[in-house]
Amino acid sequence: MARSVLVTGGNRGIGLSIARELAAAGDAVAVTYRSGEPPEGLFGVKCDVTSSEDVDNAFSKVEAEHGPVEVVVANAGITKDTLLPLMKEETFTDVIDTNLTGAYRVAKRACRGMLRMRRGRLVLISSVVAMSGSAGQTNYAASKAGMIGFARSLARELGSRGITVNVVAPGFVETDMTAALGAEQQQAIYKTIPLGRPASAAEIARVVKFLASDDAAYITGAVIPVDGGLGMGH
Hints:
Blueprint: E1 4-7, H1 13-24, E2 28-33, E3 43-46, H2 52-66, E4 69-74, H3 89-117, E5 120-125, H4 129-132, H5 138-158, E6 163-170, E7 173-174, H6 176-179, H7 183-190, E8 199-200, H8 201-211, E9 223-226
Parallel strand pairs: 1-2, 1-4, 2-3, 4-5, 5-6, 6-9, 7-8
InterPro entries: KR_dom (IPR057326), NAD(P)-bd_dom_sf (IPR036291), Sc_DH/Rdtase_CS (IPR020904), SDR (IPR050259), SDR_fam (IPR002347)
Domain Ketoreductase: 3-176
Protein name: 3-oxoacyl-[acyl-carrier-protein] reductase
């Protein structure tokens, strides 16, 4: 039977790749998107994860369309990179509100149905910079590191109900965002990666698919790096 799946920020990049991977495996997949159009062939719901009301409405629409949500991937995120001495307070808090507090809003609403079903899979998309840090990204790194503590605490709260909570930490991934970097800049980054290349979005998606599967039923509170060795030792 097809499971009801929700991927936040699922209209492009890593989120869309995750949504397509899970749909190809037979799940009924819905995605949230903040701007633009919903992706073709997937149930799309407009939602800004900085609004609890938006998140609640999105879940209600997905539940009406596909039934209680059994798998949630908290992927929606933003970057606003600035060196700290130049960073305005709202540049810091906006990133925290979307990436970390957004994940809290989504997970909290997801728990409602999962606790009733006594099963569920929560996967949070963090980043290699959560552990390694990155100059100009104090806001982003703090939000992504916060996800790890949040997920591990939630894993302890929900484990007895058959609900797993895990984190995927991607490294440098080929997306529209990274394509904007110059060739020279990209080559310099590749030199820091032991595997010498970026990840494809599909390589991230397949790890998420595994964590959402029955094969990963005994994995919870884990942080899975998919970074070509970039964050090794952290």
